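Cross-posted from the bioinformatics board.
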Amino acid sequence: MPELPEVETIRKSIEPFLANAIVTAVDVREARLRCPVNSTDFSRWIIGNRIVSVARRSKYLIWQLENDASVIIHLGMSGRLGIFAADAAIETHTHVIFHLDSSIQVRYRDPRRFGLVEVTPPQAFATWFRFTNLGVEPLSAAFNHHYVANLLKKSKKPIKNWIMDAQNVVGVGNIYANEALFKAGIHPIRPANSLKNDEQRRLVESVKSVLTAAIDKGGTTLNDFRNARSEPGFFQLDLAVYQNDGQVCGSCGAIIERIVMSGRSTFYCPSCQR
DNA sequence: AAACGCGCCTGCGGGC
DNA sequence: TGCCCGCAGGCGCGTT
């Protein structure tokens, strides 16, 4: 489900409810996520402590607590994080419920259970193992032509797979990889090390502009994505190629094609993207 | 060693 | 109506 724009949309929508709230209880209704949810960690480091802020690194949401512990949440393919009144009916696949002293609840719901809810103890966050091999944030100054050019020349993998590899740059999943390559005019199967200088620059700018535009529209709601207030996003209306196979390219009039790369649907304009 | 294939899960829509 | 199939926004492991 969520790529960087959707996770950032949730971060922004949930932070006003979480900042300065105290976690009073955590119900783990289903512990079998990507990794087992550890109730003991919540008892030890989270319950009774105050949330200071909500950050994002890659597609992870990070609740930073006053005691310097943190709650790390990844939404996988189908995860949702929403604000609910304490008496609201509990939807199916609601696996973890955080009770706050403001009497509202944050509920983690994830039908496919590919997501993750875990705790880092105080001081552990900065060196947490899930973050150690991550590449740069795409919207940071560190994601620039110099950085990209240096890594691209070392890789022969298709450029689409390269930008979806979190060791290079984080947050770009299947939707935005397709969209960014369309905008950059680069064919998805091109080997990473075959990109010319101007193509490398266009790739950087396209990734940044597509992600920024998607955040501005509150993310892409294909099916079930909702922000913390259960509102959909609107970037699906601006998708140029994703799931548009068989339709006319809005830029040149050619027909958008679909191929499969590494098991993922890949959409591109055979005329605009070379 | 880099790059790919596959499995982890549930739900949905299409075809028969 | 109902069944079966393919497909879905991510990630990590094993194999080559």
